[in-house]
């Protein structure tokens, strides 16, 4: 059970300059942190980084923003082209949602990404995390940006727990908001907190010897183990997600619609699972069936 700290107490636990000084020296040189990158290109990076590691995102993002630098350029591309360019980032529904998001921004917002969290939340594919990440990283706003890494750091530093609760709660935003400095460094503080969780205060092996924070409740309590059963790492092999990925590989590798037989050889282990995966791709609108019974990426049915 998390202990509730008195108002303002969490701020005194986490000294902003310790984190900010460390961030200036140690942050990763990621291409979307270049000052010339536009809010749209930052938004694209946030779509891609949901559930995909940085190392896989970097090459795809670089190609993507060179090819489609603005929302209108993205909206003008065919949805099949977009899904194809998404490559093996996984969870291709994100590509479709990004295309929809680009279309709405180009049509309704003069091709400019909104800077207001409430407006961002109305856009396709943008949830609580992404809206605040765009407001913070693209528009330097003092908003709490709360991802899994941030939740874990706050659980350790502030609450003395090994990890955050498995599901995000409204309280997480309040926790992080309470930590933000009251000056114009708040957006960098948010980015630094996330960076600390991604590179030093990692889930399985926190590198406390490299940690810039002089106070951490979890460390001071002697690293008590997490309550309850350990979280199982998410597997991939044999999942429907893997089967969907194999079917998408076949579709991306072919310029023309493919036959059912071409898809069938992509996964022969379990035909029921293969059918289910194909049905789900059709239901998600990522794949369409042609009038002669073949299959194509959305928009490429000829
Ligand atoms: S001291 Fe260790 S556990 Fe605490 S915030 Fe730093 S890296 Fe994480």
From TrEMBL:
CC cofactor: [4Fe-4S] cluster
Family matches, as Gene3D superfamilies: Helix-hairpin-Helix base-excision DNA repair enzymes (C-terminal), Hypothetical protein, domain 2
> What GO terms describe the biological role, i.e. biological process, of this protein?
base-excision repair; mismatch repair
Enzyme class name: hydrolase
What are the GO MF terms of this UniProt record?
4 iron, 4 sulfur cluster binding; 8-oxo-7,8-dihydroguanine DNA N-glycosylase activity; adenine/guanine mispair binding; metal ion binding; oxidized purine DNA binding; purine-specific mismatch base pair DNA N-glycosylase activity
Q: Which family does it belong to?
A: Belongs to the Nth/MutY family.
Q: Under which name does UniProt file this protein?
A: Adenine DNA glycosylase
Give the source lineage, highest ranks first. Answer: Bacteria, Bacillati, Actinomycetota, Actinomycetes, Mycobacteriales
User: Gene encoding this polypeptide?
Assistant: mutY
């Amino acid at each position: 059970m998390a202990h509730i700290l008195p108002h303002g107490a969490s701020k005194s636990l986490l000294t902003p300059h310790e984190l900010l000084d460390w961030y200036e020296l140690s942050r990763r040189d990621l291409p979307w942190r270049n000052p010339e990158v536009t809010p749209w290109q930052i938004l694209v990076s946030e779509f891609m980084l949901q559930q995909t590691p940085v190392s896989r995102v970097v090459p795809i993002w670089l190609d993507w923003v060179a090819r489609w630098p603005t929302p209108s350029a993205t909206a003008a591309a065919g949805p099949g082209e977009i899904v194809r360019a998404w490559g093996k980032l996984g969870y291709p529904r994100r590509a479709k949602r990004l295309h929809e998001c680009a279309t709405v921004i180009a049509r309704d917002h003069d091709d400019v990404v909104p800077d207001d969290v409430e407006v961002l939340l109305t856009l396709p594919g943008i949830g609580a995390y992404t809206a605040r990440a765009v407001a913070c990283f693209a528009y330097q706003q003092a908003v709490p940006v709360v991802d899994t890494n941030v939740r874990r750091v706050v659980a350790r530093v502030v609450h003395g727990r090994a990890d955050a609760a498995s599901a995000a709660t409204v309280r997480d935003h309040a926790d992080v908001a309470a930590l933000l400095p009251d000056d114009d460094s708040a957006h960098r503080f948010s980015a630094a907190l996330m960076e600390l969780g991604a590179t030093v205060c990692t889930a399985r092996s926190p590198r406390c010897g490299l940690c810039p924070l002089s106070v951490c409740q979890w460390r001071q309590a002697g690293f008590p183990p997490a309550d309850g059963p350990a979280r199982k790492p998410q597997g991939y092999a044999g999942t429907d997600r893997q089967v969907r990925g194999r079917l998408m590989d076949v579709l991306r590798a072919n310029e023309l619609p493919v036959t059912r037989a071409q898809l069938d050889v992509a996964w022969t282990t379990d035909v029921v699972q293969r059918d289910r995966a194909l049905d789900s791709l059709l239901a998600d609108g990522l794949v369409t069936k042609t009038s002669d019974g073949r299959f194509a990426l959305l928009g490429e049915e000829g």
